[in-house]
Amino acid sequence: MFNDPETVQSSAKGRMMFGEFIMLTTGNLYHGGIMVNYRCNAACRHCLYACSPTRTSGYISRETMAGICATLRRGSIGSVHIGGGEPFLDFEGLVTAIAELKQAGIDLDYVETNAFWVQDVCLAREYVRTLKDLGAGALCISLDPYHTEYVPYGLPLRLAQLCDTAGLDYFLWKQQFLRPLLGLESSSVHSREELEKHLRPDYISATAGDYGLRIGGRAVNIEEEYGPSWPLAKLLHKAPPCPDLLSTGHFHVDLEGCFIPPGCTGLRLPLAEAVDGIPPGKYPLFEALYEGGVAALLDLAAGRGFVPEESYPSRCNLCFHIRAFLSGEDPSGENLSGKDPSGENLSGKDPSGKNLEEGKGFAELDENHYAESLKYYSRRDCENHHCDS
């Protein structure tokens, strides 16, 4: 159906006619968020965006934010949320981003935070009042066992009290996790071992189930530790295409102005191209997935030296590891990016770190995403806890 011009022109998203070209496009935007940074004080096990203290530093600029707002308006979106990373790592930058949204006439639904900054109560009170005055909508305050490994759960509760006092709306994400945590010390972080003892031995997989977690980013490790594996042939049998790559039900735009499909993190395209039309052939990996699914992606990667394992927990997990390989980050942990751990460029590699000699270097892949996804969730955890593999 993708080659039928009549079908193409009537579609709200997918392939649309632009002059003499047929291009992929998201169509109108529905619901999304702006990721003002990737850096975070935490490296949560479930983070779809593989945020961490070692992610590339940087915060969205006023100019980039203004450009994003203009494109969002062309996409007919009326409101967004702000997330990260951790937006409060640069409060001045956050205030600037909110001001740009207001200038563009785009409402702010909420700002996400893990509340680490509430250790300084006076500063936190000032931040909350400022956000209230800016019309920030609400705060989405993270509260769950994963965050508790990095942020004492008493800090989200303290932030909720400050919001109540200031009259700023908020919600705890997710409220249901509070009661199980109450038996733990609220002023300190807690290790996996402590949480397994206090909550349940499989709290990691149980929490993922309670979240309804999409498998991507660092969460692929949860699936690999707890999920069953399926033979490669079974996963490839009748594997469908991936039209949701152009869904805008819960998309994100990062600090560089790139569109990130909902649930398929590690892929990104310039937002303006996603909305206005993606030039044919410019992003072959994205097109292969969109039209042919993981089977087409595997064919593309096989020609570049990828050898799949015999089994994987899911098609999405297989897709992640193919993309990790193509990004230059081998799933085994071997660094193929052309950089040593200090970031120094090694001979024979492009300065960007992409392995151009082997035909890699896909612009639609965020190579940092794959490297960070494979960090922090140590395989020692798996070895010490009822894992056979």
Task: Please describe the topology of this protein.
Elements: H1 5-10, E1 14-18, E2 21-25, E3 32-35, H2 62-74, E4 79-83, H3 91-104, E5 107-113, H4 121-134, E6 138-142, H5 145-148, H6 154-166, E7 169-173, H7 178-181, H8 192-198, H9 203-211, H10 220-226, E8 230-231, H11 232-236, E9 251-253, E10 258-260, E11 269-270, H12 271-276, H13 284-302, E12 311-312, H14 315-327, H15 367-373, H16 379-384
Helix pairs in contact: 2-3, 4-6, 13-14
Architecture overview:
There is one protein chain. The chain has 389 residues and is α/β, with parallel strands linked by helices. It has a domain at 28-229: TIM Barrel. It has 16 helices and 12 strands. Strand 3 (32-35), helix 2 (62-74) and strand 4 form a beta-alpha-beta unit. The model is unreliable at 1-11, 331-359 and 379-389 (pLDDT under 50).
